[in-house]
Amino acid sequence: MSESPKSYKAPTGMPDILPEDMPAWLRLENAVRRLFPLYGYREIRTPLCEETQLFSRSVGEATDIVEKQMYTFSGGENEKSLTLRPEMTASVVRALIEHQLFKQKTMQKFFYIGPMFRKERPQKGRFRQFYQLGIEAFGSQDPLIDAETVMLFQHLLMDLGLSRFGIRLNSIGCMTCRGSYRDTLKQAMQSRLKTFCPDCKRRYERNPFRVLDCKVETCVQARVDLPRITDHLCAACRDHFDSVRKALDQNSVPYQVDPFLVRGLDYYTRTVYEVTSDLLGSQDSLGGGGRYDALVRELDGPDMGAVGFAAGMERLIMVMQQQEGSSVQSGSASDFYIVTIGAEQRPEAFRMLAELRRAGLSGDLDYEGRSVKAQMREGTRSGARFAVILGSDEVSRKVVKVKNMIDGVEVEVARDKMVETIKERR
Ligand code: HAM
Questions:
Q1: CB of residue 275 inside a 6 A radius of ligand 1
Q2: How many angstroms is it from 109 CA to the middle of ligand 1?
Q3: For 1-15, 121-135, 321-335, which range has the lowest pLDDT when averaged over its residues?
Q4: Cα torsion 8, 9, 14, 16: sign
Q5: Burial bucket for residue 117 (CB in 10 Å: 0-12, 13-18, 19+)
Q6: What CA–CA distance (Å, rounded) separates 249 from 23?
Q7: Can you count the helices (H) and strands (E) in the chain?
């Protein structure tokens, strides 16, 4: 029995990125590829999935990501369970350890661009497949590296022409000071537990720090006078935090200390930060990151300091488009469109097309047997800068006509000067 016709749609929360959208994406990717190497970061690409355990061990069993957002599937008979990566930090750490990259040199800096997957409820700015750009720096506990990552984030935003953003900064301490703060926090919460939302009541046992950045209004009210981690840091963590702040101050980076900032992933130690924009609506986080000095060791690598951030690319593009209005071009212009008067000129036109493209010029010709008028129309529609027009007379005299599609001025040039003319005038 044949199935009834069905129109397929992209999976929920996994949008297509259409050619019209690409100029903004490429602008962002090019900015990353140009800027990040200036700070010593090298690109890394890892598989879209990893062993499930890698994420549960690093991101944390009691996080929303591991508890309910992972796309997990069988790796095959007698193979380990696999999960589509919800983030890249764990994968980069895995690659660092697997390939012993830390043996090449102790300080290693990586950047990445790629899709991540989280089974979230889709809404504006929140997807199930989304792209992140990010960095991870390994091999130093120096607070200057923390500051450098924040400054690189800021540099990227400035390069993209973005100004409507804010940086929130906090220190969540190390394993030692966090342990005693955890007890202090739980004690303070205990007497007012009923005022917290059901999620926070659950978090109280397994992950009380998450209560600090719950968005539910009653929880926001209930936590105002809860003890703050910044008042419970050990001396070494306090010094570290002071040094990060000093470096940012000395470099005129504006930020706000937010003692309630905790992150949704468990691997952080000491510095954490988030960059937000009021142009985004409720999902206002452009990106976030921080230090994670214990993770490499926990995943059976050496003891080494680490810090990094990731930014959501759809969100960056939303802000770019809002700030710039229509100036992010949709659809790219090309250099030329070849118009032939008759079919006999097509072999010569095809040779010209190859020659123009080999010279680094972009353009096309008609493959649909259209009239001269329709070819000219197509040239205009494609956004070509010049029409290169070829009839039998031009072929016999070894010339072409080059028409400027903006001012309409047409010149005749020798066939062997065609590339040069277009390059000079475009
Ligand atoms: P994260 O805060 O989970 O951190 O994600 C970073 C950014 O990815 C968010 O601020 C947001 O812009 C974007 N993002 C997250 N989830 C979604 C979603 N469902 N839809 C659209 N955008 C989203 C991390 O992933 C850490 N690995 C960052 C890091 C790197 N920390 C240290 N190194």
A1: no
A2: 19
A3: 321-335
A4: positive
A5: buried
A6: 35
A7: 15, 16
